[in-house]
Amino acid sequence: MAAVAPVGPAPRRYDRSIVEGPLLPAVWKIAWPTMLTNVIGGLQGIVDHVLVGHLVGFQGNAAIGVSMQVWLVVIIFITSLFTGMSVLVARFAGAGETEKVDRVVYQAFLTAVFMSVGIMAPVGYFAAPWLLDLVNAAPAVQAEALPFLRIMFVFSGGMLMFFMLSGALRSAGDARTPMVLGIALTVLNLVFNIVLIQGLGPLPAFGTAGAAMGTSLASGLLGLYALWKLLSGGWVVSFPRGKGWGPDWGIIRSLFRFGLPTGIQGIAMNVGGVFMLAFIGSVAQSAAAQAAFSVSYTQLFSLITWTSVGLMGAAAAVAGQNLGAGNPDRASDAVHLAARFGMAVAAGIGVFFFLIPRQLLAIFGMTDPAVVEIGVQLLRVLSVSGMFIAVALTYTGGLQGTGDTRSPLYISIISQVLIPLGICFYIQQTGHLDPIDIWYAILAGHATRCALSVLQFRRGRWRSIAVDIG
Fold it and tell me: What is the pTM of this model?
């Protein structure tokens, strides 16, 4: 099977410098806005933790960390449709097929709305207490986490709209508009959270639940604006005009064909994360360990992971468009280049993790000696682990963007589930499981994922994957 061939000159709607001319500017054009958007989004989570940590205490930090881990298990499956959408949009944009791009975006919107409103909201609301029991959250943590988690489940539509739109625009070659929208979302989120977490005037302090309320309000407003723009036009992607508004089952099947492996991958990884939280909850001083994990791994480490996820999106978009335009060698070179960016950024951030971990933890109000000691151990392990995960995510983007969404699934199950959980289980059964053992298990998983992702991409099977919707 051969890749989709170009069908003639592309319309001016798409930026042809991604598939023509110097490669470094093409990659950087998509990478830097995506990286900045994700870093700014990560900083919003850090602000939430700082506010909650000082107002509620480390139980509030643990509640947000535990809740987000659980919430991601569900939302990753929904957003996997956007991976399938991105594969199709990048190929068709590279080949200059405007009408197919718009059809794909609209069908992805319909499918995501149905799944979020019809499945995610009701199931998430009623399953929230059971999910918190599953991760062994301490009673004080559960009390803070339950309202947060329920709000995030029920009012997730705006955030899903943002994820969908960002993926569609980026895959079509426009990374700056998602950056502007991401900054607007972060500013709105910050304002709402400052007011709702600590209270202002007649408004009471909602504490941990206020963080979820602020996120839902900000993303809901952004989602309404995005819907209006997609209907009225003006962006590089839009809803098709003069076409039926019902579902197109052929396109939806293609969304699931390419997106479902990514959804299963995300669920597997986050279920692994939930079980990892269960291991953390089983150690001595479990609340302190969960708080250290929530701040060090889910917040500070996000400075690396969100940057790497940005590069993953850039690698996917540039590789997918070049494969659609009939340039597989250029697609390969783009992914290698993006991986070098990721390694450099992760190494730079890791220096701070290693040298000033106590000062970083203090920003979040982490003063309890047990929490600080555990957090310092974790940050120093993550200073090394970050370089592995940065490279792994970039090559994952290269594989997914070209249509190979199954290989990352298998790699993730091996490296992010079987290896780290297997190590923790073995130590727990044969000796005494300490937090440092869990941190080293995470490092082993990241190193394995890096090696397997690079090897699979270099095999080059992605070059022969065909994409079409008829």
Answer: 0.80
